[in-house]
Structure formats: structure tokens, C-alpha cells
Design goal:
Length: about 150
């Protein structure tokens, strides 16, 4: 058996990392846990284009947690047995979106962490908010203008 046969494909590895056992508790080292979550995020987003999912900008994008990590940590502390916590246990790969720096900043200016986790946990819900509609209308025009400017150089 060769080394390539021993390796898991991305889907199998993602399933292994996100299984419902208390594997997070088994990881005594916080560095290991952080690496595990980064691997999940990378596998989940590696095939997606690196453009902002709200405005379509391609510059300075990063992954954003729709359900803030702060909220997840609070839920963990309150009760590991709660239904809400179990539903969000695999938040890392499910609740990530790619946003540009400016949309990310605007998002945190418009919403609190609690609002993001309870009312605006999808890009569609975020883009329907009146403040975000106004901002995105302006931003999309700017992105188109900047692209034309780059092409004409």
C-alpha cells in the first residue's frame, strides 16, 4: 500500500474532524484545536472564489464567522448539553463567508455579536438589512468602477 492510499480525501478528513464526539475536549493543546479549525475552514472554502460574498470585491478578502466565536464560547461555558450548542457545534465550516475588509468593517458597525448570531446568520439576511442595502448599492458601483479602471490601465 502506497502513501497516497493512506491519505484521506478532503471529504473524509472533513467528516473525521467534525464528528459529533467530544473530540474538542480531547485536544488538550489549544494550538491543536486552532489548527483543526483552520483545516476545516480551508477544506470548506478552498474551491470558492476569493471574492466578497456581499459586494463581489476581490481585494483584501478574509473569512468571517457569521455566528461570532465569542457567542459560541459563551454557549459552551453555559451548557455543553444544550440543544443550541449541539446545533452549532460544527460552526467552523458551516458559518463562514468570505468578505472584503470594508464589508466586514461595515457589518460590525451595523450589528452586535448577538444580532449577528440570532437574526443575521446568512449573507442573504445581512444584505436585506436597510443599512446594508444602502451600503452595498454604493459599494457595488465602486467595485465595478475600480475594475474598469484596472482594465483600462
Amino acid at each position: 500500500m502506497s502513501n497516497s492510499d493512506d491519505l484521506l480525501n478532503d471529504e473524509d478528513y472533513l467528516a473525521y474532524l467534525t464528528q459529533s464526539s467530544d473530540s474538542e475536549e480531547d485536544l488538550s493543546n489549544s494550538k491543536q484545536l486552532k489548527e483543526k479549525k483552520e483545516i476545516i475552514a480551508t477544506i470548506h472554502h478552498k474551491d470558492k472564489p476569493k471574492v466578497c460574498e456581499l459586494c463581489g470585491d476581490w481585494r483584501r478578502t478574509s473569512l468571517h464567522h457569521l455566528i461570532p466565536k465569542l457567542i459560541i464560547k459563551r454557549e459552551k461555558k453555559r451548557s455543553r448539553k444544550s440543544k443550541k450548542y449541539k446545533e452549532r457545534r460544527s460552526f467552523t465550516e458551516v458559518h463562514l463567508v468570505r468578505l472584503c475588509k470594508y464589508c466586514h468593517s461595515k457589518l460590525h458597525k451595523c450589528f452586535t455579536h448577538k444580532e449577528l448570531s440570532e437574526q443575521y446568520s446568512t449573507p442573504d439576511l445581512i444584505s436585506e438589512h436597510p443599512d446594508m442595502i444602502k451600503y452595498l448599492k454604493w459599494k457595488k458601483k465602486k467595485v465595478i468602477h475600480d475594475r474598469k479602471k484596472m482594465v483600462n490601465k
